[in-house]
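Why does residue order matter? Because the sequence determines the fold. Keep that principle in mind as you read this record.
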Amino acid sequence: MSHAADPGPYAPTPHNVDPDRRANAHIEAEERGVLAGIRALGAGFRIIIRSPRLLVIGMLPALITGILYTAALITLLFKLDELMGVLPIPEDWPSALETIVRVLAAGAIGSAAVFLAIITFTTVTLLIGGPFYEHIAEKVEDSFGEVPEAEISGIRLFLRGLRDSALLLFLSVLCAILLFCAGLIPVIGQSVILVVTIGVGAWLLCLELVGIPFARRGLKLEDRHRALRRHWPRALGFAVPVYLLCTFPGGAIIVMPAAVAGGTILARNVLATYATQ
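Structure:
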């Protein structure tokens, strides 16, 4: 009778596998995670394209936000002269210097307003579009079968979602301001800080986009962060393309419905392993 050969003490166990092989396996796993995130976004686009009704519903919040932001910026533009009139400029300054100061101040206020509009647009869109995006997420998730919903009142879920969205909006603005200041540092400001800005913005956006499936199960914001952290390549593979597409003018109007659908699929995949850990 033949016996299987003894693998001996150098069998490829997790502790004695060649370090290079372990590193390569880890990199391959991360790459598969990134591709899984991209596939989730692609699936979201396919769902929205096949359902024009969901596409229209998902476009409304971005359109509303765009109209509100445009109106606010136009109002600010017409009010700049009044704002410049209250600047504490000494009366003995030459008129040319006074004009320069007023122009610089107006430019700074206008630039700050546009900057805040850009970094808050997506988060505010998600906040305004809560009911719209909740409908999309529920339709997508219900198509996969029964969902184990938590026994929590609708008002409590709404207040928790409002609190989480407000916290993420605050974090988005805070991080954006800090990273903007860091971006003024020569050399690293135009390279390293830019990559960090995209990564942080995408992560916060991902936390928002997976929120509805987690909330339906009674899970909190910290649960989202904990679950996504265990699958960070997949989360960033999904969220970075969404973040970059939303930076284009009008991009969020088309991307957000697909991102909500894709975020629901991503959340389901992540929750499948999170529940067992």
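Residues 42-59+122-274 form one domain.
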